[in-house]
Amino acid sequence: MESAPALARLPSAAISFDWPCNRHQTGWMDFMALNNNIVAVDHEGRTLLYDCASRAIRAMPQKSLAARPGRPRGFSDPEEWHWRPSKYEYEPEEAANPYAVSSYTVVGDSQIWISTLAGGTFSYDTASGIWSKAPVAVLLPFRGRAEYVPELGLWFGFSPEDEQLCAADLSLTQPLAHKLWEDSPPPESCFLRASHLLPLGSGKLCVARVFEKTERGKLLPSGYTKAERFAVLSGVEVFRAAGVEGYR
Hints:
Layout: E1 29-34, E2 37-42, E3 47-51, E4 56-60, E5 67-69, E6 83-85, E7 101-107, E8 111-116, E9 120-125, E10 130-133, E11 144-145, E12 147-149, E13 154-158, E14 165-168, E15 178-179, E16 190-201, E17 204-219, E18 225-237
């Protein structure tokens, strides 16, 4: 019988990004890989580029609404970083929030597939700047972002109903998500706030889940319940099961 993996703490962070607005205000920050660098964009379009080799930070031009990033040629020349507007050309059917994006992912070298709750699934070609209907007949079977793992030829993400790790083949006209395993429910007073997935290569994945633990009956002066947030990282290796169709 295999022993349970030992719990361990991560090493000290090389860099930390603080919350981009005042506490208890609505905001967010997204991170993208660019070669060996990291691009950070917040809810107001403020953009930073962090060079991992030199450990230097450079402010980039601010993003405007309804825009997508162009490709900078190098960290040493920030003037070549620019944002290009992208017009959304499809009008989805009426719904409570018809433009809400339910899931999205990268397909091939230049396509971004996006599913909206009422409009279906569309493909945006980053090379030509053209929108088109994606060659799938259903919404992408994930919640939020899905990641392609080339070693397995599958896309991985979280199921829309309960955020369990699952996989699907988007080369099919009607892709179905297959759950890989069921996570145990969180302890009492702990609530799942976010789930993230990071491919590590060779069929290995890192699953990061952010939980919030509240202390009932203890209120801060502001009126908020006292809460603590923490992250749990899990390593997952996916491989084809011997003698059966599918993965585990």
